Amino acid sequence: MNKTIAVIRGDGIGPEIVNEAIKVLDKIAEKYGHTFTYDDVDMGGIAIDKWGDPLPQAMLDKCLAADSVLLGAVGGPKWEGLPGPQRPEKGLLRLRAGMGLYSNLRPAKLWPQLAQASPLKPSIVEKGIDFLVVRELISGIYFGEHKTVEENGEKVATDVMLYAEHEIERIGRIAFETAMKRRKKVTCVDKANVLDTSRLWRAVLHRIKEEYPEVEYGEMFVDNASMQLVKDPSQFDVIVTGNMFGDILSDEASMLTGTIGMIPSSSLGDGTRGMYEPIHGSAPDIAGQNKANPIGTILSAAMMLKYSFGMDAEAAAIEAAVNKALNDGLRTADMMAEGCIPASCSEMGDAIAARL
Ligand code: NAD
């Protein structure tokens, strides 16, 4: 197959981790006879510096013309003082909206080799951690109106949280379809005791659940869910939730599995073209030091092969190579443990590519 991949290296550790994912993709192309063509796209801080805009239209067009998009991470302290619309993260929000990527899948799975890196007690970890957060990505409070006004001599800020039925319906369907391929359990996480948007989520999901009688459906308030994730994460299979709750809970979930550096994600809309990125940010504290864990990005590339290109065997080969590297004791600094072999970002990429 010939596939064009728009590559957004971004800021901070972005270029380092994306380079390792490309190393692995090149090895896959060589082994399985595919051709991957990479089209570099500027987004985030680097685009602000070069073009004065976190996502110039020409860059979005490149992503829309590609078969899929691979992203490292964007943002950093250098651009933090800029006004909202000019910030690096705005580029990411515009990319998601411009590509119509409404569903964000974030798997939280414990690799047995990293069990001791989990902050949870062994008695909890032993029960297993393997769930998926299905997060709505292009609506809700991050996309509602944001404004700050002067009232009675002080500043007053508002952020509007808005959901339309069709936005809940399409993400709800993805959650139920995904659950059908897993352990057939969906938990809707919301704040229906306070928010109208949450009550609408529940009403729409009740309609959908009638079509999936095999799926066990439950609901949980977000404050309780954040507690249950720590108390007994084995109870979850598919969590479906809105944009902001999903953002927060999936970061919490990532820590349960040991390190945020291991978790990939996919963002998809109606077609097969998607955007794939690790769930962590640009980690400015370790940028440029060849210390970052590239596995979240490498596994994101594997998700791209599986979900956008239908290359199931190739994706499985990458996961197996990661597993072998971990079995052989290689660890980047974020997951280092006694008796293991320290690996830099590029050494980890080399090790995984060599095990393919
Ligand atoms: P972060 O995820 O970048 O870092 C949090 C902590 O995790 C840091 O200690 C960092 O060193 C560590 N970490 C993250 N990824 C790692 C990896 N691959 N290997 C080893 N350690 C890793 O979150 P933050 O510090 O809150 O944000 C930093 C910047 O990233 C901000 O500008 C933020 O807006 C941006 N951000 C971007 C994205 C994205 O591009 N999708 C997502 C989240 C945050």
Automatic annotation (TrEMBL):
Its main location: cytoplasm. Transmembrane segments: none annotated. Binds 1 Mg(2+) or Mn(2+) ion per subunit. It catalyses: (2R,3S)-3-isopropylmalate + NAD(+) = 4-methyl-2-oxopentanoate + CO2 + NADH. Its cofactor is Mn(2+); Mg(2+). NAD(+) binds at residues 76-89, 281-293. GO terms for molecular function: 3-isopropylmalate dehydrogenase activity; magnesium ion binding; NAD binding. Substrate binds at R96, R106, R135, D223. The record marks Y142, K191 as: Important for catalysis. Pathway: Amino-acid biosynthesis; L-leucine biosynthesis; L-leucine from 3-methyl-2-oxobutanoate: step 3/4. One of its GO terms (cellular component) is cytosol. Its EC number is 1.1.1.85. It is an enzyme of class 1 (oxidoreductase). Catalyzes the oxidation of 3-carboxy-2-hydroxy-4-methylpentanoate (3-isopropylmalate) to 3-carboxy-4-methyl-2-oxopentanoate. The product decarboxylates to 4-methyl-2 oxopentanoate. Belongs to the isocitrate and isopropylmalate dehydrogenases family. LeuB type 1 subfamily. This is 3-isopropylmalate dehydrogenase. It comes from Candidatus Allofournierella merdipullorum. The gene is leuB.
